[in-house]
Amino acid sequence: MSSKSARADYWTCAVTGLRVHEATVPPLLVNAVTAIGFLLLGGLLSVLLALTRWEAVHLLPANWYYVTLTLHAWSMLGFWMIFFEIAILYFASSVVLQVPLASLRAAWLAYVVMIGGALLAAVTVLVQGDGWDQPLLTSYAPLKIHPLFLLGAIIFAVGAFVGLGLFFATVWRAQRADIERRSLPLVVFGAVVAAIIATESLLGGAVAYGWYFLYTIGVIPTIDAEMYRVLFWLLGHGSQQINLAAMVTSWYLLAYIAVGARTVSEKVSRTAFIMYALFINLGAAHHILSDPGVSNAWRIFNASYAVYGAVMASLIHAFAIPGSVEWALRRQGHTGLFGWLRNAPWGNPAFASLAVSLTLFGVLGGITGVTFGTEQLNMMVHNTLAIPGHFHATVVAGTTIAFMGIAYQVIQLIARRDLLSRQLATFQLYFYGAAMAAVSVAMIWLGYFFGTPRRHAATAALSIVRSPLLEAVLGIAAMLAVVGGILFLALAVLSLLGGSRRPVGPRLAPIAGGADARSTSTPSPEAAPVPHDLSGTLTLCLIFLALLLAIYATHWVNLASLWGVR
Amino acid sequence: MSLASPSERNWWDLPVAVHEKVWLIVAVATGLVLFLMMPFWHVVGRQNSSATSYRVAAQTWYTKVNDWVKTAKVGSKGVEPPGTDVYLSAMRYQFYPNSVVLKTGVEYRFHVSSPDVNHGFSVHKDGATAQKVNFQVVPGYDYVITMEFSEPGVYTIVCTEYCGLGHHEMKEGKIIVEGGR
Ligand code: HEM
Ligand SMILES: [Cu+2]
Ligand SMILES: [Cu+2]
User: Fold this and answer.
1) Contact assessment for residue A497 and residue A33, using Cβ atoms and an 8 Å cutoff
2) Among residues A62, A181, A350, B9, which is most buried (max CB within 10 A)?
């Protein structure tokens, strides 16, 4: 960086016109690159897992399978996701609102604490030896978990708190400096919701882990195993919803970058985000539907958050995002029920990531989530491979692919490097999506039809029916998915190092008084004189809903064929 | 443009497009169906999640299971319960007793718990696909699951929750269902 006084330096993005504060760039990129490093680690480990679950190969001995499962889960759901979300929060606050981060020192402090905690947790499970149980993702008490693992996870959460605080402070400052008192841009609004959910759930996770930590070091003598499960999921469940809210926020951003879309109704989209913040914690119940210690009324009330909460919000976004794309493309002159869709920029990585992520998340992840999260239907799949099948559709095919799309944009807009090849980037997204879809479907099928247990190192030794064919599909698709992941990493890193420099607009000094130069948007679709036509989106959504109801109904039919249970 | 503040200050008052309104109505109606199915099935369905459980200390649980086994008839195929209560303890790394002999058409009350850590209680009909139920076994809780088998056959019990480094070696249990009265 050429500047001496970093605080004063902005440059203008030649594409979006955003004035980027130069000092924000290093912490943003370091968090994003660290995240991608964990994605690579977790991806390489996932092949070992899949090849172990493919019983014809049965790669790992059991003790290494459990170590690998723990490291995979934490590298991915923990470290890849949260580091990348911190990068997104810095983007949504400093870059979009065009102000400096409230404190650079806090940004680096957050990073150092997070990486320290992450490494402590990861190294502990790697070297602890067979005298201790592996935590896997969930570390259900009273397993004998190493206290240093729990401590590492708590430290990681504390670091993330610092990052979250920095985000809130930066947004707060920008809003106070805005003399016109405008509403937050939708992307920032979504990020604020994600950050609120993150604060609650990290706090909750830290409390549950703190309690468990005190137990493992002998300060408290006993721990109620069901209370722990309820607490862990009530408070920790939200951590999955950070991913959801961050992904939906990314979708709005990608839709804008790809086709200049603007949400068709600010009111409806923002209300849906608020519903996430309000109802998401009730989702904890779907982890506990087949547990002792909770009443049916509690289960139905909480599981029916399906009706009045989070699922409804997701259904709203499921319409609003394709709807905004349809609106933008019709404005460009495309017509017909699906003419706009045929003419969409399928070869553009921003659009490709949006399309793949949204479709797979909804069709595979959404439908299985709604059915498996129904009180009675849950007992057909609880603790089977169908559960990781479901969440690989949501958090990998959905969130991870959306984040890959965002990463390609960060490289172009923030690191100001051209992608080495846009065609290859687009291909990578479709390829990874297809492979992940196969991984998810194989797991869902194995779990649902064959009852193959999750987290099991030797199912061939059991006398339940197996499907060697589906196990092979899982193993092969996992290898293909990892090829897709490595392609992503190679493209990202090589573009960062060797992509040609993109032009910058004029360098600017900050505006006196700290007021930001935030732009206001194009006129809203709602304000348009002619009513806009969203018939294509409505048709697509109704087809989706019909599919959902059909699959939901077959689950009930199957349940009814079982022996009596109550 | 989602990167900028909305240009209209009155964005809240702007009308919602007709197609989006239709979608909102359809979505809420679907949600109601999803919700109502759960209480509805409690009324008409034969398969519902059990919500009966009692707290039980590890020591008490241990004695309960042993006392019950003492009153039962232990045949060559397994334990034949004296009444309709069946006790099953999931522990590192086996089920105890590991085989019970039951009759079709009788409603049995399974008590499942564990003296050590979380386990899984999955019952699979041997040789069949998609014929299984899965529950969580939690130490400190006597989980009462009522089951009535309509078809004779062998049902395998599998631990489906990670319960320690020997989880995959946990021995299966068997429920042998014979044609009943
Ligand atoms: C190349 C992509 C990936 C493949 C092929 C893959 C495959 C797998 C497999 C085979 C398992 C083991 C299931 C079992 O034996 O119980 C697993 C577990 C898991 N994966 Fe992935 N995975 C991938 C990416 C991800 C990502 C990106 C995330 C999160 C963002 C993730 C989160 C998890 C979690 C949380 C578990 C469960 C751990 C537990 O049961 O405690 N995976 N994955
Ligand atoms: Cu077990
Ligand atoms: Cu086990």
Assistant:
1) no
2) A350
